Structures are given as C-alpha cells and as structure tokens.
Amino acid sequence: MEFKTVVDSGCATVHLDGRLAYGVYPDFRAATLAALEHPAATRIQLDMSGVTFLDSSVLGMILYFNQKARAAHKELAIVRPSAQVAEVLKIVNFSKLVPILP
Amino acid sequence: MTATPHGSPGNLKILVADDDPLTRRLVRAALEVDGFEVISVRDGNEGLERFREQAPDLVLTDYSMPGMSGAEFTRRIRALSSEGPAGPSVPVVVFTGHGEAEVLKECLEAGAVDFLIKPFTIQELRLRIRATAELVAAQASRAAREAEERDEIAVVKHMLNRLLEPGKAALPRGFVMETMATRRINGDICTYRGGAAGIHFGMVCDPMGHGLMAGISGIPTLDVFNALAARNFPLPSILEEINEKLIHLLPVGRFSCAVLFRMDWHSGEFFVINSAMPDALVLRADGSVARFPSTGIPLGIQKDLGSPAVGRARMAPGDCFFACSDGLTDIVDEGQIIGIFRDCGLDGFTDRLRGLVEQRIGNLDLADDVSWCLWPFQPGHAAPASSGTRLPPENHEGQAMDLRLRFHPGIPAYQEMGSTLVGFLSRHGVSQSMAQNLALLLSEAIINAVDHGVLELDSALKEDDFERYDLERRSRLETCGQVPIELQVSLRLGPDGICSRLLVRVADPGKGFDWRRYLAHMAETPDTLSGRGLLLLQALGRDLAFNETGSEVSFGLYASQE
User: Where are the domains of chain B?
Assistant: First the structure.
C-alpha cells in the first residue's frame, strides 16, 4: 500500500487510506519521511479521510513521527479523519497529542 | 456428443413399392444417381417387412398393387412408423394412374403426404422427392431438438427432485407445501428442511422466468438453503449466502425472489424474511392476521441486501403461517385467502383454496407458476419429526458458535487473521458495528500477544526509537519459530439469528507481560507511545480480564452496547 504525498503552499499532505495496522509501517515511514524532508513544507497533514481501519500500532507510528516533526520544527496535524478513525482517536484522547482538524 | 439422424437430404433411405419392374428400375436409377439409398419391393407385404427391418426415412408406393392397395399400405406404414423410434413422421408419397378425387382422398385419409400421377418424368420425381426430403430433414431436426430439450428437462428435473425430495419426505404431518407449474418444469420452489429437532425451515422462492430457465436458477438456491437450514443457520445468513451464490452464478438481469421462514415447534417462535415476495401472513386462530411484507430486494442482483428485516411472531396453538408466490396472488386476492381461513379454519383451508385456484384457472393456461405453503402450529399434536438432534437446553434461546484458531506469528498471514475472521463472522449474525469493534480489539489483542507474549519486546523501545523497535520486531519474528497463539471467539446468537454477544480469548505461550504497569503508565503519561491498545480494549471490550501473568486476555462484546 503506497501513500501519496502532495506538497502545496508550504503544506505537505500525506494521504493515508485503507486498512492501517502494524504491517503498513514501511509505507507509512516512506510517505511521512518524504513529507518531512521536503524543503518547501513547513506543515505536515495526515489526511485520514480514506482510512477504514486503524489500530493502536498506527497511533504509535503517528506519535513517533510527531516527535520527528517537532524536532524539525514542522507542525503535524491529522485532517479529515473518517468516522471510524475519529472514534478511535477520541477514545485514546489523541487530540491532546496531535491536532485533529475536521 | 451428438447422434446423427439419417435425415439430411441426399443420404436418405427410401423404400419404393411398385409391382411394375420398369417403374421400380426407373425410380431406383434416378434416386441412386442423386445419392439416395433405395430399397425396392414388389408389393405391400414385402414393403411392410422391409420397412420393419430397415426403417426407411421416406416411402414411395404405387396405388395399384396386387394384394394390398397403396392406400392400405400407406395406412399400415403410418401405423407402424408411429410405433417406431422415428415416430409418426415417415412420409409416404403415392404414385397413381388415377387422377380421380376419390382415390386422392382415400390416400390422403390413409396418411399420404403427396402424389405423383403416372406417367411422371424423372424431373417431376426429383422435385417431389426433394420437397419431401426437406420435410423429412426438418422433421428430423425438430425431433432431435425436442429430444435434446427432453434430455435437458429430465436432467434439471432430476436435480431439482434430488434437492426437493428430502424435504418432501420429511415434511411434518399437517404442513402443506403446494405448487402448480405452467410448464414441464416448475420454476417456483416450495421447500421444507428440518434443522435441529423441533426447528423447521421453509422457503417459497420464485426465480425469474418459467420452465427450464427458472428451474436452473432454482438449483443453487435450493442447494444453499438445504445445506444451511440443516445446520440451523440464522435466516439472514441463509439469505446472504443464497444472494452471493446467485450473484456468482446467474447472468446479469436474472434474479430470484424468496421468502424464508423458521418455526420452533417447542416455543412457537417464528421468524420470516421476505425478499420481494407477496406479503407472508400469520393467520391467527382468533381471526386476526399478522403481515410480513417484503423488506428486501430480489436476490442475485447486488451484494448489499440492505439488511432486510427479520419478521418475528409468537405462534399460538391453531395459528398458521401462510406464504405464496405472486402466481397465486395474481389469481386469488389475499382477502379471499384470509377469508377462507376465517370461514373454515385449518381443516378445510387447503381444499377450499385448491378449489378456488382450479376454478380461477378454468380452462386457461396458467400464466405463472403457483406456489403456496401453510404451516399450522399445533403443539398439542405430537411434535413433527425433523432431521437434527435436539440442541442442549442451555442453548434453547439461541445457538452458540465457538471458533478456535491456532497460528504462529512467523507466517505473515497472521496479520490478516483478525480481519478474515471478522469478515466471516459479519456474514453470520454479527452486526456491522459489533464487527467493527471486534476487528479493532482482535487486532490489539493479537499484536499484544505477538509483540509482548511471543517476541518479548518492551514497548518502551517504541518511545525511544520506533524504527529500532520495528527492526528488532522483524528480526525476532524470523527466528521465533513455531509458537502457537490461540484465538477463541464464542458467539451467542439470539433467536432472531443475530449475535447478541461474543466472547474473545487470546492466549500466547510466552512469559506474559506486566499489564498492570502498562495501565498505570498510561494513566500517568498520556503522551506515551505505548499502552494505547490496552486503553482501547478497556474502553470497547466488556469484562476485560488478564490472567495473572498477562499471557491470556479475554473480553466480551454485547449487542446492547450498540
């Protein structure tokens, strides 16, 4: 599963989609690193509108990536979470850790 | 593989009967030049003998022969050929020197198809034979087509009977299932299947079209129904399986309508699902009627059936369930059906309805197959037999399903174990929202068993360096060998066939992990990268419990949580 990264107006958007579990780590890593290392991107968004499933291992990946983004002085946000994703994020209070935008 | 009839023009076998040797020689020579096989005889008696021996395709006979006239010979040939394999189709052409109307009439009445007035030319003979040969060929080809169709019908009938007969043989006393066909094959299906003792399943199904076409469409429907009803599957699952089978097998544009029902002889609990059939009815002994209209779309069109509702009724003694195909409601109003039941109750219902149907049809051909069933609930009578064994008493209100899997995480496929299992369960009574939570919690419990139980990875490593964690995880997965993880899901199905609760147990053979520390750590440090799986298990699972060492976790999911 490859995730598309698009950079526009200083914002890199990683389009995550489908079923996200531990096995997606190599693709998640590749897509988020591409966003992080893009010179024109000062903000990074994880677009989760197309995600049908995610478990806590993916939350761990996002938090780890958040640490890296902070270290690189880039803001990370989760945008457009699908209903299923939003429910999981809410249960674990994820909005206290990473901004979640509708 | 096909059999060749000796019917195509050019290689026909022709019997020529004439007492005049010159005519016989002339006709033989002319026909043989054209490639026909010719048998010539001098009179009718010899002709009949050779006819029996050699089964010609066409007969030419003189009218005036000694011993037996051409008309009599024709009559006997017709009689013989109607008994033979070629049927009544062997045509006879009569030569006659008499052009009189009386003679021609006599020959026609005897069954001749054509004449040649003597003297005739070779050209005339050829033209007449060619026309008759074409007729023979057309008849042979029609006969072959009909024989082929008879074979096809026989095969489909055989298959349908094989699927219907067990139900017919086991149909409990007092249950009526009736069908009337427009064609040689009944497209409608009206069938019974016994599940566990005292549980009765039935289906009235109306595949699109009539005859052979509908009969063929009915075969997979019946096959799935029989298999799943015998195993007490919930009605929504049976419907879904039939739908999937039809989508897989039927060409686009073909579909089936069906009403499926289930009666518990002990409790009177009755369930019905109606997909595009006329309203099914519970005719109450007190004269009231409970109606179960269609809540679904026809089967075989689209995968998503849109969760058709399961109708439910509690039958009281003397109540009857009634369902039918639209072939019946086209000729008899529903109000009349209810009226008959109110007038004469169960005893006279079947005869009165049959009589009304026959009266409505009269001498007309049926436009559609007619099917209906009437199942009375009479618990005072001896419980009708059905094929299965009685369920254990503790399962009386519903059935249980217990799934156990053992796998080891060295194979990459283990990652799909949870989602595959949930996919299966969601087709067997587990609702969508319950399936969604189950998928998440299974994923959490499995990864917990793998990462901490089997691979003995410390989650703290994730916080320091997720990449190192991942590398370490991969390397341990490769070397961990055959370490069995046990997964058990126990479902309790409600009487409506929907899962009311399920219990999950995941156990690994590892040393376990300090689950108390993780839960405490989560509470103290919300920004930690680990422990969120436990939080989800706590929030969504009911009665979350670990064993002492943490190598086994169990939790429940309940329909009432939704």
Answer: 13-147, 171-376, 393-561
Give all strands of the β-sheet with B176-180 in edge-to-edge order. B176-180, B370-376, B320-324, B280-283, B289-292
Would you call B517 exposed, middle or buried from its count of C-beta atoms within 10 A (0-12, 13-18, 19+)? exposed
**Model pLDDT for residues B226-276, shown as the tens digit of each residue:** 888 887 788 888 999 999 999 999 888 888 999 999 988 877 889 999 999
- The answer to whether B436 contacts chain A (CB < 8 Å) is yes
In B, residues 490-549, which contact A (CB 8 Å cutoff)? 526-527, 529-530, 532-533, 535-536, 539-540
Cβ-based neighbour number of residue B519 at 10 Å: 15
The answer to whether residue B562 scores a pLDDT higher than 50 is: no
Interface of A with B in 22-51 (CB under 8 A): 22-23, 25, 29
**B533·A53 Cβ contact <8 A:** no
Closest residue of B to A55, CA-based? B440
Say whether A96 and B467 touch across the interface (CB within 8 A): no
Cβ-defined contact of B526 to A21 (cutoff 8 Å): no
Interface membership of A55 toward B (CB under 8 Å): yes
Q: Per-residue pLDDT tens for B132-154?
A: 888 878 888 888 888 888 888 88
With respect to CATH, is domain B171-376 assigned 3.60.40.10? yes
Order the strands of the B13-17 sheet from edge to edge.
Answer: B37-41, B13-17, B58-62, B92-96, B114-117
Give B13-147's CATH code, choosing from 3.40.50.2300, 3.40.640.10, 3.30.720.120, 3.30.70.1130.
Answer: 3.40.50.2300
